[in-house]
Structure prediction request, 189 residues.
Amino acid sequence: MVSWSGLGRSFGINLFKNKSIPFKGQNVNFSTSKIFNGDHGHKVMALQPSRWQWHKFKDMLHYYAMIGLIPVTAIIFYTNVFIGPAQLEPIPKDYTPKYWEYHRHPITRFIARYIHNDPQQDYEKFMHFIDEEHQKIKLRALEKEIIKKMSERQDYQAYYYRPMVNKYLRINKQVGDEIYNRLGDDIKD
Prediction:
């Protein structure tokens, strides 16, 4: 598989090669495909950018496309030819159909069963999300009401009030007293 683009290159060179037809004028053969140089064989290779990366890309594209396309095509062909779509039949009284059994095609049933979530599970998750949002709305409304009552009555410190730590106040007062005792009352500015 990797050599396909190499084969294409070799065929492409032969297919698109410039084949010029020699023509004859006054008993002299002229050919446009040959270049005659007067330097007797000193030929210079023309510099051109490398096409290695392009050929490598084509090789990898062909390789991975075939790795993916051949098995997927075989699976789809097998399911459509040998398994086929589901037939509608009456449901027995003591049987509850599973959620994936409502799909007609076998590949769709496989995806619904093993890849997607159960629709009932999705519905319950969504209902839980709605309930949580409703609880948050109720809590926010209660918080607004509490803040409103606290501001009306002004009888309680707010719940976000942080009392001052007395330790630092005592240390600050002690330092101030020491400075006062050391310098006294008659400090001249």
